[in-house]
Write a structure and sequence with these properties.
Number of helices: 4
Oligomer: single chain
Radius of gyration: 33 Å
Distance between the termini: 108 Å
Number of strands: 47
Helix content: under 10%
Strand content: over 45%
Structural class: mainly beta
């Protein structure tokens, strides 16, 4: 050996003699010790050999045709902590299980092609059912972690294979802190499946993983708490992908309040099938009856989504979806609905920030605190509250299409929003700094409703007939009242004598209050008015100046 790699030290005359040209017997190995670095502690040779072994030590061939099932499973079950798959294609006809505290790894992630090539590849028989590779066990015990790295799990037949229903590429069951790194799942009904049986497994990591040619679901999270996915690509963005059901399925539940599914975190992930679509991005379905757990936390950060027909969907079994965070993402499929939720679903503590939606947002739900901030929507935006306790905060929202607010609200508060919308919402509706917005419908039917509209340097364009109940307050950009009107009491308060760029437009005096631009009351010729905006108070049957509050007779 070179000076950089000193010769190992051996203890045992039999082994020393064998190293000069003979062969080692099992007895020689079991009775010998080795120190791989001169001067370091001696260890039993058998222990050192078991730290890392190759599947080829157990007879695996890796030529793509020889059945390597028995050899691979023997290596995985050997008790060695690290099992190496040299480059090759290992054909298997049975289901493989990686036991707890075992890491199976290749060198270098296989090339993401159609099908994957190069690197270490486990190729299951075309007709194989169930999970090709399982980490953990379906038994009741919760297992210590296992690991799979830099390996592709594919189906025989590649891009033309027939995929049996219910098949899984890689399954994690009842494992604590299972780790998938650089793993590709290709040609299966489900790509990856995280399952937390009772008692629940907990925590799974996916990093630098990929999926391709998935028939049903790219990733299923079934009752497993704490699944974290990063730097992962779902879909090959090519012709190899199939029309499938969804990218992510969240299902199941637990009678353990700390069980799953909860704490699902996706960072720097790409969801894109290229030429074929997924019916939805994320599907909440079939929550277990009586489950004490819920999502707890669902987070998407720096993600990109494309080639879907719907965004987030849920069925009637999911009555509450909690703590959803979407930040710094681009959701890019114009014309689709990004939220197809079961009507009345409770959305608790949601935050959507710094995100672009190419498509529509239409939500009919109980909003138990929703925050939308710095969001662009290319198509339409609509929020309908199903319960008078709903609370939503909107800030820096720009919508190219139409906006609509409806239903009963505790608080619907918007600041710096831009678009054209209709509003039939009732309750405390506060819309401020709404430059460029046209309101085209009556506001309230509740005598105790209050409405606030603020306008910026460009003014606020208001074209509506206000109901005889409730209050109207208009602020300027300094947030000081321009005027305040209580239609029920017939009172007006105008603290400022003159404010530029008051609301523009005119209507007919058929409701409780109307206003006319430049003092031209309905029916008057242009230029015949007072020159200042005026409004009609039905209680006193009198026109008043918006600027001074004084009665206007001509």
């Amino acid at each position: 050996m070179s000076a950089n790699y000193p010769s190992p030290t051996f203890a045992g005359a039999t082994l020393q003699g064998a190293l000069t040209g003979g062969r080692l017997s099992a007895t020689d190995v079991s009775q010998s010790q080795v120190a791989l670095v001169n001067g370091s502690q001696l260890h039993p040779m058998l222990t050192k050999l078991r730290e890392t072994i190759s599947v080829k030590d157990y007879g695996a061939v890796g030529d793509g045709s020889t059945d390597d099932t028995a050899a691979l499973q023997a290596a995985f079950s050997s008790g060695n902590s690290h099992v190496f798959l040299p480059r090759g294609t290992y054909y298997v006809t049975g289901n493989l299980v990686i036991p707890p505290q075992t890491c199976v790894y290749g060198l270098g992630q296989p090339l993401l092609s159609n099908p994957p090539s190069m690197g270490a590849i486990i190729m299951c028989q075309a007709s194989l059912t169930g999970a090709a590779v399982t980490l953990g066990s379906t038994s009741a015990a919760v297992h210590l972690p296992a690991c799979l790295e830099n390996i592709a799990v594919v189906r025989q037949g590649g891009a033309t294979s027939s995929i049996p229903a219910g098949t899984i590429g890689v399954q994690v069951v009842n494992s604590q802190a299972a780790y998938l790194n650089g793993v590709t799942s290709y040609g299966h009904d489900t790509g990856f499946y995280f399952r937390g049986n009772c008692p629940d497994g907990i925590t799974g990591w996916m990093e630098r993983c990929t999926t391709g040619r998935i028939q049903n679901t790219h990733l299923v999270i079934d009752s497993m708490p704490e699944v974290r996915v990063s730097n992962t690509r779902f879909g090959t963005n090519g012709v190899g992908d199939m029309v499938c059901q969804e990218f992510i399925s969240v299902t199941g539940g637990s009678m353990n309040v700390a069980g799953g599914p909860n704490t699902l975190i996706f960072t720097n992930c790409q969801f894109n099938q290229g030429q074929n679509y997924a019916h939805s991005w994320m599907n909440f379905n079939n929550q277990m009856a009586g489950s004490l757990s819920d999502t707890g936390l669902l987070q998407f950060v720096n993600c990109y989504v494309e080639t879907v027909l719907s965004g987030i969907v849920c069925d009637s079994t999911w009555t509450t979806i909690r703590r959803v965070q979407i930040a710094n993402c681009e959701l890019s499929d114009e014309g689709i609905q990004w939220f197809n939720l079961y009507p009345g679903t409770r959305l608790q503590d949601w935050a959507i920030c710094n995100t672009i939606f190419y498509g529509n947002i239409t939500i009919n739900a109980l909003f138990d605190h929703l925050l939308i901030d710095n969001v662009l929507v290319s198509d339409s935006f609509s929020l309908t509250s199903s319960d008078s306790s709903s609370t939503v905060m909107l800030a820096n929202l720009s919508v190219r299409g139409s906006m609509n607010f409806a239903g009963p609200w505790a608080d619907l508060i918007g600041s710096s929003i831009h678009g054209t919308f209709t509003n039939t919402a009732t309750g405390n509706v506060l819309l401020s700094d709404a430059a460029g917005i046209t309101l085209t419908a009556p506001y309230g039917v509740d005598a105790e409703s209050n409405y606030t509209i603020s306008y910026g340097p460009q003014g606020a364009r208001i074209s509506t007939v206000w109901q005889a109940d409730g209050n109207l307050v208009v602020y300027n950009t300094a947030k000081s009242p321009v005027f305040s009107i209580n239609a029920t009491l017939g009172t007006v308060s105008i603290p400022s004598a003159s404010v530029a760029k008051l609301p523009r437009g005119s209507t007919t005096p058929t409701g409780s209050m109307v206003y006319a631009n430049n003092g031209c009351k309905p029916g008057e010729a242009s230029g015949s008015g007072t020159g200042v905006p005026v409004f009609w108070n039905a209680s006193t049957q009198t026109w008043y100046s918006f600027c001074s509050g004084a009665a206007v007779t001509s």
